[in-house]
Amino acid sequence: MKKEKLVAVILYSIVVFITAGAGLQFITATQFFDYHSRAAGIDWSSLNPDLQMLILAGFKVTGAGFLTVALNLALMILFSFTKHARSWSGIAIPLVGLVFWSVVLSTTLLVFSATGASAPWGASLFCVMALLVGLFISQRELKEQDN
What we know:
There is one protein chain. This protein has helices at 3-28, 34-40, 49-79, 86-115, 121-146. The two termini are 18 Å apart. The chain is mainly alpha-helical and 147 residues long. The protein contains 5 helices and no strands.
C-alpha cells in the first residue's frame, strides 16, 4: 500500500473511532451533557421526567446514527482493499463521513454561536478536515493510477 493511501486510511480510521465514541456517549447517556445545560440555561434535574425521557430517546436515536455512520465507514474502509472497490471507495468513504460530520459541525457551531456554551465542535472540525485531506489523497492516487 502506498504511503499516501495509508495516510488516508489512518485519517478515515480515526474518524471511525471518534464517530463510534460519540455514538456510545449518546447511547449510554443518562442525562444531557454539560454544554446542553449551559446552552439551555437549565439543569437536567429541573426538567420534568417526561421531557427527560424524550431527550434521552432522542439521544439514543442520535447515538444510533453515529454508530451507523461509523459502521458504514469501517466497512467501506475494509472493502476498499478489494479489486473492484477502488473506483468507488475513494469517493464513498469521505462523502458519507462529510455529509454526517458537516451537519454535526454546523449544528455544534450554531449552538456555540447562539448560546456561548462550549459545544464540542473541535472534534467535528477535525473529522471534516481529516475526511477532506483523505478525499484529496484518494483522488490524487486515482489520477496517478489512470496515468
